[in-house]
Design brief:
This protein is an alpha/beta fold. It has helices at about 1-20, 25-30, 80-95, 110-120, 170-175; strands at about 50-55, 60, 70-75, 100-105, 125-130, 145-150, 155-160. The N and C termini lie far apart (about 55 Å).
């Protein structure tokens, strides 16, 4: 008897998922957030308008990276977690720079400190210092903060912590967004 009650409960739950409007979507968002990529936040064209002073590359504006896949990282030499993730960012850059643009923006930092950090560690990922205000939509609240955007400006990944950016899952995301 208990066995049948268990089956009935499961059937009622499944029926509810398919009958109650929005139940399936809510469960999908809760347990499978990647499936909601089509609802991803977009970075608007005006959010790209940030003048960037190049530290180890030419100065530019972030809007020059619009319509391209973009790895956008906010960091600081003063931030231990930021420094910790740098080796994996360099490896990702070395392997994917032909497919994804990389923009690393040093925040609350002195140009000399950034140059010294890059030189001491032999890092050559393009680094900039923002020369104009950053949109609230992408302005970080914590460091490091990294966005992986597709060519349409959709935020595919947003990570607010140090991460291994050379992981296979990141490479798979990049493979999917450059198709």
């Amino acid at each position: 008897m208990k066995k049948y009650i268990g089956y009935i409960v499961v059937l009622v739950i499944l029926a509810g998922i398919f009958i109650i409007p929005g139940a399936k979507d809510k469960l999908q968002e809760t347990f499978f957030p990647i499936a909601t990529i089509e609802k991803a936040v977009h970075v608007a064209p005006e959010d790209y308008d940030i003048d960037l002073k190049g530290i180890n590359t030419a100065s530019t504006n972030l809007k020059n990276f619009k319509d391209k896949p973009l790895f956008l990282n906010f960091w600081g030499t003063w931030c231990p977690p930021c420094r910790k993730e740098w080796p994996s960012i360099q490896k990702l850059y070395d392997g994917r720079k032909d497919h994804v643009d990389f923009v690393l923006i040093a925040m609350n930092d002195q140009e000399d400190a950034v140059r010294k950090f890059l030189k001491e560690n032999n890092y050559n990922v393009p680094v900039y210092i923002a020369q104009s205000p950053i949109s609230e939509k992408i302005l970080p609240k914590v460091f490091p903060t990294t966005f992986l955007l597709d060519k349409n400006g959709r935020i595919i990944i947003k990570e607010d912590a140090a991460t291994n950016w050379d992981a296979e899952s990141v490479h798979q995301f990049i493979d999917n967004i450059i198709k």
